Amino acid sequence: MNDDAQQFASDNYSGICPEAWGAMAEANAGHAPAYGEDAWTARAADAFRTLFETRCEVFFAFNGTAANALALASLCRSYHSVICADAAHVETDECGAPEFFSNGSKLLTVRTESGKLTPDAIRALATNRKDIHFPKVRVVTVTQPTETGQVYTLAELQAISATCRDLGLSLHMDGARFANACAHLGCSPADMTWRAGVDVLCFGGTKNGMHAGEAVVFFEPALAEDFGYRCKQAGQLASKMRFLSAPWVGILESGAWLHNAAHGNTCAQDFAAAVADMPGIAPMFPVEANAVFLAMPAEMMERLRAKGWRFYTFIGGGARFMFAWDAKRERVAELVADLRAVAAASA
Ligand SMILES: *Cc1c(COP(=O)(O)O)cnc(C)c1O
After folding, report:
1. Which Enzyme Commission number(s) are on file for it (predicted)?
2. What is the mean pLDDT of the chain?
3. Looking at the domain 257-346, which fold is it?
């Protein structure tokens, strides 16, 4: 049964947005060729080319773990390595899938405060070892926005990609919440990716309002060679592909991808502002996307849970609240009121 009291534990607690749902309903009206030979899939790929203002190659995977792991594997040989932040989803939340699908390419983590990589850290790690005993550094992956909700500026991305070019490394972007970063920066998707030197992007659909699906976008078509085989081998080639591609048509052509994300970001901002003066509660990171992390005493968390709220504490021990495309203002206000009550009770 639907437990319909809205929660902010994760942006993928949300349902499917009307634009994605409508396109799926349309795609469901009849029969269509299988395995991506259908008109919806061609139209979705074109929608990406329009959005990114370039002739990119696009593949549709079921989820972000597969998209990231296969994209990284396509940039690496088994003896290569990939630089990522210590908090990166590819390192902490993909069960070794990038290493598995690349047949052993090692992830090299950089200790970071914000989850953001820097040119200096990349250079230090990439030039530390040149001998045959260490996996050769080949790729850098950035998460935009980071797992703690910070957004790389265009200048930061450009500086990272300049370092990558200098060192002969490819640049991959985990954009599970790509739309939230675009909404925050107010820049074009092209500026945040290929014009800033990103080679491959994983663009998240699930957290943006789709039922499922992430797009792997190659800005350098040569890098996409044989990627379809990789997807098929990994069990990521949908036979009824139109149901993975049609919702992209729904959210990209309507602009829902951006307004869904902007709504989540605004709710996060408003929520962070509303709790800013509460005793015992402190924000852990700047709020730039749709995430708010709050440090608070354990007993306050318990009281909040006792009031029926769900939230994760898996990053840095604080309470994480995520605001999705469908976050209801009245429900955010209820969370604020309950937080105020537990803060007062604990003070
Ligand atoms: C959610 C998320 C993913 C994708 O996760 P799946 O559960 O595999 O779809 C990838 N990267 C980041 C940063 C995420 O937050």
Report:
1. 4.1.2.48
2. 97
3. Aspartate Aminotransferase, domain 1 (3.90.1150)
Cα gap 57→125, rounded to integer Å: 31
**Residues carrying CATH 3.90.1150.10, the chain:** 257-346
Give the separation between CA 333 and CA 341, rounded to whole angstroms: 12
Q: Is 89 in the pocket of ligand 1 (CB under 6 A)?
A: yes
Closest of 311, 177, 227 to residue 45, by C-alpha: 227
Where, residue-wise, is CATH 3.40.640.10 in the chain? Answer: 18-255
Given this structure, which CATH class describes domain 18-255?
A: alpha beta
Strands 319-322 and 80-85: unpaired
Which value, to the nearest 10 degrees, does the dihedral of the CA atoms of residues 258, 263, 267, 268 take? -10
Distance CA 184, CA 180 (A): 6
Q: How does pLDDT run across 287-297, given as a tens digit for each residue?
A: 999 999 999 99
Cβ contact 182:189 at 8 Å: yes
Protein residue whose Cα sits closest to atom 14 of ligand 1: 176
Q: Is the pTM of this model over 0.85?
A: yes
Whether the CB of 147 sits within 6 Å of ligand 1: yes
Q: In what order do the strands lie in the sheet with 291-295?
A: 282-283, 291-295, 319-322
